Structure formats: C-alpha cells, structure tokens
Amino acid sequence: MGLRLGDTAPDFTAMTTDGELSFHDWKKDSWAVFFSHPADFTPVCTTELGRTAALGSEFAKRNTKAMAISIDPVEDHHAWAPDIGEVTGTPLNFPIVADPDHKVAELYDMIHPGEGDTSTVRSVFIVDPENKLRLILTYPKSVGRNFDEIVRVIDALQATDANPIATPADWKPGDRVIVSPGMSTEDAKAKFENVEEFKPYLRYADAPK
Ligand code: BEZ
C-alpha cells in the first residue's frame, strides 16, 4: 500500500550533496519539503531546484527545510549543482539525495513505470515536525511545479494546526478563513473577529492574529 496523509514519513539514510544524512535526524523538529526530480542536467529540474534555492529564506521563516532526490549518483549531483546557481541566480542551498539503487524512491513510490523509464516523477511530500506526511503531490515529468503553491500549503497547514479553522479555495495568508465545521457559530463569535454565517456549515472569519 502506498503512503497516505498522516503516515509517518519513512526514515532513510543516504548519500547526499551534503554528505551522508538520515532523514529524520536531518529534519529534526522542523517541517520538510522532500521532493523528487527526474534527472540531473535536465532543463525543468534545473529551474525547479533553482526556485527552491531562491525560496530558502521563505522556507526558513516557516521552520521548513528542503531536500531533493533523484536516482543519479552523488558525483552527478555535484557536477550539475553549479549549473543551478548559474542558470537561476541562486546557488544550491539544500541537499540532493543520490539514490542510484532506487531504495528511497521505492520507499516513497516515486518511480511510476507508466511514465517512461525508471527515473523518479515529480513527487512532493510536506512533512510536519512530528514526521507525519501532511501533503502528497505528484506531477508528471514534463510539468514543472509551482513552488509558491508549496509555500502556500505550508502556511495553510501551520494556520490550521494553530486554530480550529480551514482555508477556502485559493486562500492566501491574510485572507479570511473558514470556521472549522466542528465549532458552533456562537463559539466561533467568541473566538474570532467578524464571523459571518453564509450557511450554517459555511462561516467565514478574519484570520486569527
Ligand atoms: C526536465 O527536467 O526538463 C525533464 C526531465 C524528464 C522529462 C522531461 C523533462
């Protein structure tokens, strides 16, 4: 059975561009974005890893670490890494796992045989401080991911962990939120500002400060 939301993110020890790392030890009690790319020296992957590097300070503000993985050997990762900085303007600032024997890719079900070869597809796992999987995304090899969306999901997860709220479609930090269905409107009015009942099941409120 594949990985599901709420499962513990499988731990592993592997060679990376920052040396040998064990996933749980490396992330400790931070959030993590663990994502696969199909191959080194490929155009879409170069833009994606550069974009992730550029978001380094945004991830840090959110107590979040990034880690990438492909089935290429660590020598290839080291040879390709300078291209990422050269092409995108931000040098690599997070580890890339080398997974030539596919051990980690298989643990995370990142190889989809229908997608052409044994390279990894574009999987994304957001892992919380307790090592639980909180988001799983899978993109095809031909489509680069939207990393603003990944940051937005981290914001939404952190906001909904902190308060009995959910976030509506296209929510961005600062937008109004939805009161959790389990909370009465009366209790919501005592807890949140500007509670508005559109339907008994759909109550908006200002985002908690
Ligand atoms: C790329 O990163 O450009 C790429 C990799 C595999 C298939 C298609 C595109």
UniProtKB/TrEMBL annotation:
GO-annotated cellular components: cytosol
Pfam assignment, any one: 1-cysPrx_C
Keywords: Antioxidant, Oxidoreductase, Peroxidase, Redox-active center
Molecular function, one GO term: thioredoxin peroxidase activity
Domain Thioredoxin residues, every copy: 3-159
Gene Ontology annotations of biological process type: cell redox homeostasis; cellular response to stress; hydrogen peroxide catabolic process; response to oxidative stress
Cross-referenced PROSITE patterns: THIOREDOXIN_2 (PS51352)
Secretion signal, residue range per the UniProt entry: none
Entry keyword annotation includes Oxidoreductase: yes
NCBIfam families, A to Z: PRK13189.1
Listed name of the protein: Putative antioxidant protein
